[in-house]
């Protein structure tokens, strides 16, 4: 039993360095995500001002006016798929195809936020529990300096894990609302295009 316990203890301790490395990588990735999220926020606010009222008051006859307002250098998902929808045939099958692709790309963009939200606390907790064991050993043996060092690792892994999770959760909540609204708007435009196609037919 003692051999098994020592083996388990050795395996757990050997995971501390990989855990810290993963935490640092995810922390760097969360900083990059925060920067790209800010850029997306600015583009979203501009597009809401540009398209919000036009789509709300849109009619089949106003499709050309909506198409004329599309910015040429905007590569956001909504603008990309709206441009494609307005530039091609009004087939319902193709509109459904575009909406499905939009949902898939939106889900792909959300995957990083979901990963950070889930893995941040997990890796932080792993680092906390692993470093807590030698800290308790140091406390029992009177090694205060060793205990203090390990407690620093305990708190650091916990804090970094929670920061990573916070970035993931915040960006996930905002992006889910953005993409839901964008998909509703595209569905509305698709219905109007379909109605105008049936009327001409």
Short description:
By secondary structure, the protein is mainly alpha-helical. It contains six helices and no strands. The radius of gyration is 26 Å and the shape is elongated.
Explain this structure:
- This protein is mainly α and 201 residues long.
- It has one domain.
- The chain contains six helices and no strands.
- The protein has helices at residues 2-14, 16-56, 63-68, 77-87, 92-141, 144-200.
- Helix 2 (16-56) runs antiparallel to helix 5 (92-141), helix 4 (77-87) packs antiparallel against helix 5 and helix 5 packs antiparallel against helix 6.
- The chain is elongated, with a radius of gyration of 26 Å.
- The relative contact order is 0.16.
- The model has no long low-confidence stretch (mean pLDDT 83).
Q: What is the strand and helix layout of this fold?
A:
Elements: H1 2-14, H2 16-56, H3 63-68, H4 77-87, H5 92-141, H6 144-200
Notable characteristics:
single chain, 201 residues, mainly alpha, 89% helix
Note the beta-strand portion: under 5%
Mean pLDDT: 83
- Poorly predicted ranges: none
Give the helices and strands as they follow along the chain. Answer: HHHHHH
Overall shape: elongated
Q: Helix count, per DSSP?
A: 6
| Helix fraction bin | over 70%
**Main sheet?**
none
Please give the number of β-strands: 0
- Category from helices, strands and their pairing: mainly alpha
How would you describe the oligomerization state of the chains in this entry?
single chain
The span between the termini is: 81 Å
**Alpha carbon gyration radius:** 26 Å
Total number of distinct structural domains: 1
